[in-house]
């Protein structure tokens, strides 16, 4: 380099090293940028990025007369800008001596005595913290190699980590890794000498960077595959859709081959089941039926999925459902049995004492419904922030995450704008653009992707995982933001949060005590169990000796002198693994959930929000669908007779005496398989009209039903229309 005299080629430290053969000139970009006696007098395409060749020659001649105060050699082109300071130095020498170079405005340079420093309150405790980029320890001291976030109290960084992140993220994506602040954070980092290049992020410039991640396992591994088109055949939104193992993702099954009614049901492959069985955390559920004395109308409520040979039955159905009038239920009905929502302990109790268990389950369901009504009112209040200005998101359903991420990060996106979804890979584009079903489907696919993504770990109740790449790309913030937007804009809730994760978000991680069930790593869980169930001091010490490296890395080593010390040790390991280890992703996730004020409402109404974030939506029943719709009719229509046909049809659908399900009916009218937490806007209605076939108006959430003379005519028209309409949409 003609300015510093070094041959080093290190773009991260000295900028790009450029050689111009025609001018016999080699120069480091940073050396040129920070030199005190040269300015960009040309256009961008002239000379070296606007520095004219003649000006560079003059600067080299000027610097040749100046001696570096650090290495004592000639050619010191950079001077300290502090008044009365005469120090000069080369750029690499200044880096070595911990000078500060500000890559902004006038590109000022400060020597080691006059450089700006960060100020810390005297009352602030000194100690060690985690660098939120590399997660190694960092000393909380005002030194050159350590920087503190100006917007977060407990965010500390290595200077080298920050510089590498700035070079990778560029000016558009470089921000605080904890709170996502951009303006205040960048201003402070520029003041402290971090170079933030004016370019797009490196991961945005790499061609097909995420191509390998888009490969999904699609093969049915069930011993007896029922699909006539082969094990590799996959048809979305049908019984031949392939569901992957929720634990390993490397095995699959067609929904029909494992007798699954819904894609949202969990499924584990045999290998994962055997691992769970060996660790003692998995027990195969057996069919248990209610006592025969409790049968109603000669039917039995089973606590597990029916045989594939049984008639098709809507989930959560009960055959003894009798309807009197719209929104009125028979008072002596048994509540529906749902094996997915009942804990194992409740299932055993139900077999022994069905009346008591039914009563408790009925009360619990009633309480959950009350909480969900409260959440609906809260979300409707938050939705008042949404204005009529429209933001269109172009979504590829086959690449839902990347297209959603791109849409949420576009400059004109605002959570307060009305969101319009356009599926770019949809054949019938005009229909996809105008139907409210597009938005329902988008948020449903997005929540399903998040549930199965690397951002979360666990089987059904999930905690945040530690994904370094996701931390680097700020994906935890985006995930929290997407969930908040989904809730307020009428999408589904996640429904897979563990109580520990929910409590960390609401009450703060310092007030939460995790349990062994929160540990998703099988090896870590086994280590904790060995410590927890050690029955003597010698066996406890032997176990600690065997896992010494793990305990040391977790910072959980403590002297053990008595058997009772194991309880504190287990508690330390759980807090480290479940909470402290993911403190940075958790804080980013919390910041994302603050979008539209959702986190604040969660903290004000924890019980209500727990009902939608920690529990799956209540399975549809005839009662639920009946209560959802309000019946309207013209003056010349017999409202009572039409309502009787409608309610009788719901009863048949629920009892499995129909080719459609309650979910199909809801999808036909609203475009959604389930009822969103905020409810439907506008509220679903039913009209009885002189028409030939039923019509589902998804813009108005209105079901227009034909007036028929007999119930059989009504049923046949309903099934013909709904089945063929949904089949055409899937094709």
From TrEMBL:
<keyword id="KW-0539">Nucleus</keyword>
<dbReference type="InterPro" id="IPR011011">
    <property type="entry name" value="Znf_FYVE_PHD"/>
</dbReference>
<dbReference type="Pfam" id="PF26054">
    <property type="entry name" value="PHD_G2E3"/>
</dbReference>
<dbReference type="InterPro" id="IPR042013">
    <property type="entry name" value="PHF7/G2E3_ePHD"/>
</dbReference>
<keyword id="KW-0833">Ubl conjugation pathway</keyword>
<keyword id="KW-0862">Zinc</keyword>
<dbReference type="InterPro" id="IPR013083">
    <property type="entry name" value="Znf_RING/FYVE/PHD"/>
</dbReference>
<keyword id="KW-0479">Metal-binding</keyword>
<dbReference type="InterPro" id="IPR000569">
    <property type="entry name" value="HECT_dom"/>
</dbReference>
<dbReference type="GO" id="GO:0005634">
    <property type="term" value="C:nucleus"/>
</dbReference>
<dbReference type="InterPro" id="IPR001965">
    <property type="entry name" value="Znf_PHD"/>
</dbReference>
<protein>
    <submittedName>
        <fullName>G2/M phase-specific E3 ubiquitin-protein ligase</fullName>
    </submittedName>
</protein>
<dbReference type="InterPro" id="IPR035983">
    <property type="entry name" value="Hect_E3_ubiquitin_ligase"/>
</dbReference>
<dbReference type="InterPro" id="IPR034732">
    <property type="entry name" value="EPHD"/>
</dbReference>
<comment type="pathway">
    <text>Protein modification; protein ubiquitination.</text>
</comment>
<keyword id="KW-0863">Zinc-finger</keyword>
<dbReference type="Pfam" id="PF00632">
    <property type="entry name" value="HECT"/>
</dbReference>
<dbReference type="Pfam" id="PF13771">
    <property type="entry name" value="zf-HC5HC2H"/>
</dbReference>
<dbReference type="InterPro" id="IPR059102">
    <property type="entry name" value="PHD_PHF7/G2E3-like"/>
</dbReference>
<dbReference type="GO" id="GO:0004842">
    <property type="term" value="F:ubiquitin-protein transferase activity"/>
</dbReference>
<feature type="domain" description="PHD-type">
    <location>
        <begin position="1"/>
        <end position="115"/>
    </location>
</feature>
<dbReference type="GO" id="GO:0008270">
    <property type="term" value="F:zinc ion binding"/>
</dbReference>
<dbReference type="InterPro" id="IPR051188">
    <property type="entry name" value="PHD-type_Zinc_Finger"/>
</dbReference>
<keyword id="KW-0808">Transferase</keyword>
